[in-house]
What does this fold into?
Amino acid sequence: MIGIFGGTFDPIHIGHLRPVLEVLEDLALDEIRLIPCHVPPHRTAPVANPVQRLAMLEAAIQGVPGLKVDDRELRRDGPSYTVDTLISLRAELGDHRPLCLLLGMDSFRGLDTWRRWRELITLAHIIVMHRPGSQPPAQGEVAALLAEHITDNTALLRACPAGHILLKEVTQLDISATRIRALIKEGKSARYLVPDGVWAMIASEGFYHGARMSRD
It folds into this structure.
């Protein structure tokens, strides 16, 4: 069973990594692929360029069994739509391998704004990572999707390739890439907000200092 976790990772930080690691271990996934997007459909373009973000991501997970980097969105032109990524993974892995799309609760609440969002549940299970006490949507189309597909039985995720939604409590840290970039631009340290290898790279290469970085 393979997990998929996407984002701009600008930069990758421990607020991304701790919940993903908990899902990997608690649900005994074979692996989780972290997929940096090229052109985010729902937010402004990343500050760091693709090469820099990929390098930071690889440094972040170095030596962590089960976490892998997948650069397929960086190699694909145009907006990085999740539905296209899942279709690509299905073509590679076949129709029978269980796939799990990892989302935070805020992303899940806004799922109906995503391109061809109703197809996602046919391509993968959805694992919604949330802090204890967080409430899922109670009305609207996403709430209806949740009501139709929710399960608390992890065995069902392994028994079929897609089609279920699992709500998973995780440790969620109030850390944002926006705040990290602001600290660095102000000449302050982001140590302990990002993995040591990422901080060493940011410090040595001067990422996020001064003017907006190239997107080339």
The chain has a mean pLDDT of 93.
